[in-house]
Design brief:
Dehydroquinate synthase-like, alpha domain; 6-stranded parallel sheet; Rossmann fold; binds fe (iii) ion; single chain; alpha/beta; binds NADP nicotinamide-adenine-dinucleotide phosphate; globular; two-stranded antiparallel sheet
Amino acid sequence: MKKFGFSMPTKILFGPGIVREEGGALALGKKPFLVTGKSSARRSGAWDDVLAVLPGGYEVFDQVENNPSVETVRRGGRLARAADCDYIIAIGGGSPLDAAKIIAVLAANDVDPLDLYTEGWSRRALPVAAIPTTAGTGSEVTQYAVLTIADEETKKGLGGFDLFPRVAYLDPRYTRSQPLEVTVDTAVDALSHLIEGYLARRAAPASDFTALKGLELWAENIAALKAGSFSLENRASLLLASTLGGITIAQTGTCLVHALGYSLTYFHGLPHGRANAVFLAEYLRYTETVEPQRTEEILGLLGLSSPEDFGELISGLFRQKLDNFSLSKAEKRRYVQKAVSTRNMSNSRGEPGLEELMKIVEASVKS
Ligand code: NAP
Ligand code: FE
């Protein structure tokens, strides 16, 4: 019998208007440091709701770029410390949410962000309230944050129990202002978490439960994703599916799809979800050989009968935009080398090595 744990310390508050209704839970201290991107907080409506319930003064850091860099969190950490803030409110997609978590660590620990990867940190991070405006990363309920590390030419995740946000406000209305491309990119990231989480070595009964429910919810939105038209109900179930994906990977971690995707974002600027999308169908073709039952269950929940059908679904969702994406042989070899040394590989079932990874990449991307 499999032994397992299940850790989900984040308080989740869900529903349209929830920030104003449950504003009391947002005040995790005396003075917040508001972390966000360039425009998503304001465009989504989250900004006005947060300011309406904040009791006092606050400091703003609205400089988080997509796939946040070490420099950005370094700067944010310094500003949060200098402003004497004692908690963080993060508003936006996964990029501001992840940056906010590291800023929360740096505000409490006067160290360089790069050293966190090797030394960890000793003082507890400031508490974080997370308000997602995309439905994809699930960062609002994970203990992870991903930074772009220029020195290593990759993106790299950091994990720690105090990176779990203290509270997550999920208001599906905030995801309505996303451009269609961002909606699709992020929805496929959520799908990737649910699939990789269900197929991970670390999967266990409790994470299977959240993964399967998330897949079921995600599948209800396939027609809307294809049509590019979303009701508030669609937005709500995609957001919930994304949060269930986050809860799942908080237990299981991700697998080789994420490991490969990072290079497509770093070297070719593909948005995170789209980068995962490139490899998902071939990953399922591979897992069909090493984990047929789970792979069939996933396909069945999505109303599909084969990895080929899955590939067509992805191609349709991205409106053939991915069909012309190509990589040279040398690029493929390089990205495989980078992925093969990550922990994601040992979490992938079937013990895939260099050869299997290369096969997946060859079959996924034209040369
Ligand atoms: P993102 O990089 O946060 O945002 C993408 C774009 O969408 C940005 O231009 C953003 O604008 C815009 N946007 C966000 N919400 C919007 C809204 N409601 N209306 C209009 N525009 C909006 O995208 P993401 O996919 O959510 O996050 C990706 C990052 O999360 C990656 O770095 C990835 O590695 C990480 N990630 C983390 C975890 C985890 O567990 N921590 C898991 C998976 C992925 P702004 O410029 O205003 O921000
Ligand atoms: Fe992801």
